[in-house]
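Issue 218. Parser rejects a valid record. Input:
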Amino acid sequence: FKQKTAYEIYQCDWSSDVCSSDLGDEVKSWAATLSSPYCGAPAHEDITQWMAQPDQVQSMAVVALRDPKGELIGLLALASPDPQRYHAGMGTDLLERIGQLAGAALSRLS
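Output the parser choked on:
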């Protein structure tokens, strides 16, 4: 695969393949600390497992999705088999903006 994207919304009542409330407390706690997108090696096995081919994930970007009040409502994860695709030194302005827009849009659905 070239790149895969997954998202998880955990404070909602929807039932679908991409929206559930099975995020572990460790991942929720870690996600709550994200003030900017995380870019680097896979940080949590739970997030890596969202991907179609989790064994091939070598780098990922994880973006916290927040509602307009700043409450964490989910995560957006992008993964790549290229270990250098997502790295700590990369710019994250676009990822931050995508997270803001997605969080605002998704918060209207709950």
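Fixed in the parser; the record now loads. DSSP finds three helices and four strands in the chain.
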